[in-house]
Amino acid sequence: QGPVCTNLGLKPGQRLTVKGKIAPNAKSFVMNLGKDATLVGLHFNPRFDAHGDVNTIVCNSKKVEEWGAEHREAVFPFQKGGTAEITFSVNQNDVTVHLPGHQFTFPNRLNLSVFDYFDTQGDFTLQSLSWE
């Protein structure tokens, strides 16, 4: 478990940029964005080799203990031992995830009006966090 941020206050039109380093022997890492630890609007989980997935980004949402349907992205711009910069843009009805050379959107299934919570877990070391 890496740092946990609360009271971010991210609203539609704002974005969060995350920079960090991926472990040389990484299996997977996670970034959660939501209201708090129990209401996760976006669970962002790049998997190098975990849970039967190889070089796949799995996204989901979680309401208390109930997970939604998994969304998979085949584009995988991450490298073990490399650095990563990921930007999450909050929109009215979804979150746009900006990756190196690729972007995709994930619906705001929980209809969150503000994203206050962010955490990172797994094989990722957070170096900087900025929002605007």
Automatic annotation (TrEMBL):
> What Gene Ontology molecular-function terms does this entry list?
lactose binding; laminin binding
Keywords of the record, alphabetical order, are: Lectin
The residues covered by the Galectin domain are 2-132
PROSITE patterns listed in its UniProt record: GALECTIN
Which regions span the lipid bilayer?
Answer: none
> Does the record bear Transferase in its keywords?
no
Q: What SUPFAM superfamilies is this protein classified in? A: Concanavalin A-like lectins/glucanases
Q: Name one GO cellular component term.
A: extracellular space
Highest taxon of the source? Eukaryota
The entry's protein name is: Galectin
User: Per UniProt, what is the name of the gene that codes for the protein in this document?
Assistant: Leg4
